[in-house]
Amino acid sequence: MLNINLISPEIKKESELRKLNGLIIRLGWPLIIISTALSLYFLAGLYLLRYQIAKNTNSGISAEIFAQNSGQELKILNNAITIIDGLQAEYFDPFPLLQKIAGFSSSGVKFTQITINKTNNEAIFKGLSARRDDLLAFKKKLEESNSFQDIVLPINNLLLKENIIFDIKARITNYEN
Fold it and tell me: What domains does the chain contain, in order, with CATH numbers?
């Protein structure tokens, strides 16, 4: 087989360069168009941002007024935090004391209201006792505990033998177990 090379090496190289140039042109133009579109998009965003800043500055909102308003808001927030801190400092967990009270009461003593006033260290127990003996046993357990002192059970609560509506007051000495 005989190969005859009729194309000179220079023309062959030129042909390859033309193919490469065509490929670059086909791929280059879309890249140029996309980058131009993105540039215009970001430029428009920049001008819009500058417009909004200029609009807000010209509407009378200055840095000094903004700082004063922020200072007032910070004072209000600081006062709210101080109030919350005060409330949290006054908080106590009533559950250990309530568990102790529940352990003192027998099945014959039912509570309708238990009031614990930490400010006055006072507890008020209101409820219904099935029998006088159950009520007296509850009072005795309160007196024997290290959590309560000065237990006051009005005498009129002991006039009936059964179905007694009672009201007991006591001073709280210990809120923990």
Answer: 95-172 (3.30.1360.100)
Q: What's the token pair of residue 144?
A: 């024997």
CB 171 within 8 A of CB 152: no
Distance CA 108, CA 106 (A): 5
- Give the model confidence (pLDDT) of 95-144 as tens digits: 888 888 888 887 788 889 988 888 888 989 999 998 888 888 888 998 88
Q: Which residues contact 149 (CB under 8 A, 6 or more apart)?
A: 170, 171, 173
Amino acid at 173: T
Q: Which helix (H) or strand (E) holds 47?
A: helix 9-58
Residues 12-47 have pLDDT tens digits of: 888 888 888 888 888 888 888 999 999 999 999 888
Q: Do 113 and 167 meet the contact criterion of CB atoms below 8 Å apart?
A: no
Among positive and negative, which fits the CA dihedral 75, 77, 83, 85? negative
Tokens 């004063």: give the residue.
68
End-to-end CA distance of the chain: 111
17-37 residues labelled b (16+ CB within 10 A) or e (exposed): eeeeeeeeeeeeeeeeeeeee
Per the listing, tokens 């309560």 go with 148
pTM of the complete model beyond 0.70? no
